[in-house]
């Protein structure tokens, strides 16, 4: 038996979040050889996935008291649930990362990247870090992540014609309607493809309705397969059309090529299919970028998804069509992306050459800024990204520069008095500044507005000024 202390991961979220923890399990096993890896998770999610998971010992929440008997090398809390933060405090460990809840109700987030992650709540318009990467960045050296090569999805032999369609999602806003899926089936059949419906118990009635509306004798496997069986059946599919949902992440992890119909309040940069070689289709409208919660009268981001055009695109992806054909087949009003690795981290490459506005430039700048602050890259990378913002969107650059004196005024007052002039300052900042002011707000709150925390945030501001100078 090993004498090395175990490592504990708390992942009390849904199935997709658990699967996005799998890369971290692999990296931990390499970084901490000989240390047992424990995972506390919801049993209904981890048990059917155990055959597909990297090596780890799983504990259900009912076994939390057993974990308190161990002394850990490291505890990583990836959950937003209060019970996980409380357990993170109660277990003994040499190091803790993520939220920790003390008996007096005080809550602290340990780790720069986990703190950055908390600052994205209702503030993720310009975020370009994937959850799977954020799970690891406080612990795993960037070099280790960059050296990792995940297998790209399978390409089946010519003539393979089965297309999987997953019809569910955790929220209605995140998935197409039953009528959309019924029409999609008709158009796929018309192009010589054989669609197969997938879903869980919650999708049984929807599956029947889709079959009825389509009028087609298709295979409906809703609520008939376990997750391990789904993974096996996926070996026979040439493509999996799916909303952003747990089975999408399972499909991507098991090597099944995905076309993610990304709609509603999701951000594919954060939760898109993680491995390289998958496809993401997303509405090309401002409100669909970094959508945390829809505030419009209806879901306008669903409108550009036309079943016939999606079927055409799916056929081209399934047959390995050229980039030029994929660009031409992308439906109007939508943007098609492929998942890639860029400098060892997740990246979405937009396949068309349309004018893209200021958002990509601003997003890259903030990605390099926080990466520079947290020691991923040298300062020159941030300076170069800022030069691109100035050249490509000078009005936005001026907006940020004009707001820096107000940020400085707020922080200078806080350094003297211990409070901001305006407690909701970050929300009233212009959008281009909110990645910084949102993080600033969370850092101050996390540090109990101590003088040391004010000084630390001032250092971040000095770096921002230096980068934009």
Automatic annotation (TrEMBL):
One matching Pfam family: Glyco_transf_9
Family annotation (CDD domains): GT9_LPS_heptosyltransferase
GO biological-process terms attached to the record: lipopolysaccharide core region biosynthetic process
Signal peptide: none
GO molecular function: ADP-heptose-lipopolysaccharide heptosyltransferase activity
Keyword set includes NAD: no
Keyword tags: Glycosyltransferase, Transferase
Gene3D superfamilies named among the record's database cross-references: Glycogen Phosphorylase B
GO cellular component: cytosol
Protein name: Glycosyl transferase family 9
């Amino acid at each position: 038996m090993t004498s090395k202390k175990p490592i504990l991961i708390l992942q009390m979220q849904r199935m997709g979040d658990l699967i996005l923890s799998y890369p971290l399990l692999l990296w931990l096993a390499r970084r901490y050889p000989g240390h047992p890896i424990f995972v506390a998770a919801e049993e209904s999610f981890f048990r059917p996935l155990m055959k597909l998971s990297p090596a780890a010992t799983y504990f259900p929440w009912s076994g939390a008291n057993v974990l308190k008997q161990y002394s850990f090398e490291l505890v990583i809390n990836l959950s937003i649930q209060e019970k996980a933060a409380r357990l993170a405090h109660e277990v003994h460990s040499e190091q803790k990362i993520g939220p920790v809840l003390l008996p007096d109700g005080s809550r602290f987030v340990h780790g720069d990247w986990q703190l950055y992650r908390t600052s994205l709540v209702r503030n993720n318009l310009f975020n370009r870090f994937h959850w799977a990467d954020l799970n690891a960045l406080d612990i795993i050296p960037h070099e280790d992540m960059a050296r990792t090569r995940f297998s790209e999805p399978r390409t089946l032999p010519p003539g393979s014609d089965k297309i999987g369609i997953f019809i569910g999602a955790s929220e209605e806003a995140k998935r197409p309607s039953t009528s959309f899926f019924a029409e999609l089936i008709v158009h796929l059949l018309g192009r010589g493809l054989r669609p197969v419906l997938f879903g869980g118990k919650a999708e049984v009635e929807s599956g029947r309705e889709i079959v009825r509306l389509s009028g087609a004798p298709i295979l409906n496997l809703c609520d008939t397969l376990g997750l391990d069986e789904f993974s096996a059946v996926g070996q026979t599919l040439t493509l999996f059309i799916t909303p952003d949902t747990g089975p999408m992440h399972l499909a991507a992890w098991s090597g099944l090529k995905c076309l993610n119909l990304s709609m509603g309040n999701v951000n594919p940069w954060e939760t898109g299919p993680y491995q390289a070689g998958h496809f993401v289709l997303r509405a090309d409208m401002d409100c669909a970028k970094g959508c945390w919660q829809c505030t419009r009268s209806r879901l306008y981001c669903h409108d550009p998804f036309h079943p016939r055009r999606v079927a055409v695109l799916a056929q081209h992806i399934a047959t390995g069509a050229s980039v030029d054909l994929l660009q031409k087949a992308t439906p109007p009003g939508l943007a098609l992306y492929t998942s890639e690795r860029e400098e060892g981290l997740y990246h979405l490459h937009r396949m068309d050459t349309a004018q893209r506005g200021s958002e990509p430039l601003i997003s890259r700048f903030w990605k390099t800024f926080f990466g520079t602050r947290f020691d991923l890259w040298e300062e020159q990378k941030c300076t170069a990204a800022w030069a691109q913002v100035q050249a490509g969107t000078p009005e936005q650059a001026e907006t940020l520069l004009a707001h820096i004196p107000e940020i400085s005024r707020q922080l200078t007052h806080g350094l003297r008095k211990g409070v901001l002039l305006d407690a909701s300052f970050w929300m009233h900042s212009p959008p281009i500044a909110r990645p910084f002011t949102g993080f600033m707000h969370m850092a101050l709150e996390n540090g109990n507005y101590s003088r040391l925390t004010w000084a630390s945030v001032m250092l971040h501001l000095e770096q921002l000024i230096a980068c934009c100078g």
